[in-house]
Amino acid sequence: MALFQPKREAPSQVDFEHLPRHVAIIMDGNGRWAKRRGLPRTAGHAAGAETFRTIATYCKDIGLEYLSVYAFSTENWRRPMEEISAIMGLLKKYLLEAIAKMERDRVKMKFFGDLSPLTPELRQLCLETEEISRHYDGVQVNICLNYGGRDELVRAARAFAADCLKGGARPEDLTEGTFSNYLFSAGIPDPDLVIRPSGELRLSNFLPWQAAYAELYFTDVLWPDFSKEELNRALADYQHRARRFGGV
């Protein structure tokens, strides 16, 4: 038997009556997209922001329940300040537009991550979008901002330990379910499908606890070029897999 199988073409027909509940996407490849075009990396982030808007709207239109996106990691602070400032400027622009159009679009938004390093203005905008959209039905977009999976697990462990010290919990009572309640994603189902564009074959510290049994889909398409059709290919591929969760 061959050790390596040729890559098969993903089916493109999606059964929209049986979508996964939760899709997570690592929005990767903005910088390389810009470099290939002789543009500054900031142009790639601007194009990626438009792709995010398109994909989030499409997820709402097809009836997806949850979409989580990796917008800015705890490691991304190591990038040049000019690039970080551009990303934060795009976030501010998106949030201001989202607040203005929320009653029309009715997309629920939630943020995973430590927002404390953000400017007071950005933190307020994040909280405002969460509060305004709290009562909306339909797709919920979870934006992972200043997020790191290991950091999330450490924070959860500390929070549980603090509850034990206060007498509100006992170490022997800890289960996977109770631990999940200390995560940023508390109350949200784990992702069924994790998509990574850009050709990289790793999760990069993205939702390590929640994605333990997620199906993984990798594509060479860079995030700014990621289209509704590419998402459909990922969904169709997911629908042709057998999820056994460790069983037979």
Feature tags:
alpha/beta, six-stranded parallel sheet, 14% strand, globular
Kindly describe this structure.
The chain has 248 residues and is α/β, with parallel strands linked by helices. It is built from seven helices and six strands. A six-stranded parallel beta sheet has the order 3-4-2-1-5-6, with helices on both faces. Helix 1 crosses helix 2 and helix 2 packs parallel to helix 3. The longest helix has 25 residues. The chain is globular, with a radius of gyration of 19 Å. The N terminus is likely disordered.
Concise account of the structure shown:
It is built from 7 helices and 6 strands; from the N terminus they run E-H-H-E-H-E-H-E-H-H-E-E-H. It is α/β, with parallel strands linked by helices and 248 residues long.
Proportion of residues in helical segments: 40-55%
Q: Give the DSSP E fraction (strand runs of 2 or more residues).
A: 5-15%
The overall pLDDT average reads 93
Query: What is the oligomer described by this structure?
Result: single chain
Shape: globular
Total strand segments = 6
Major β-sheet strand ordering: 3-4-2-1-5-6
C-alpha-based Rg, rounded: 19 Å
The main pleated sheet reads as: 6 strands, parallel
SSE-based structural type: alpha/beta
Low confidence ranges: 1-7
- Topology pattern, helix = H, strand = E: EHHEHEHEHHEEH
Task: Report the total helices.
Answer: 7
Question: What is the rounded distance between the termini?
Answer: 22 Å
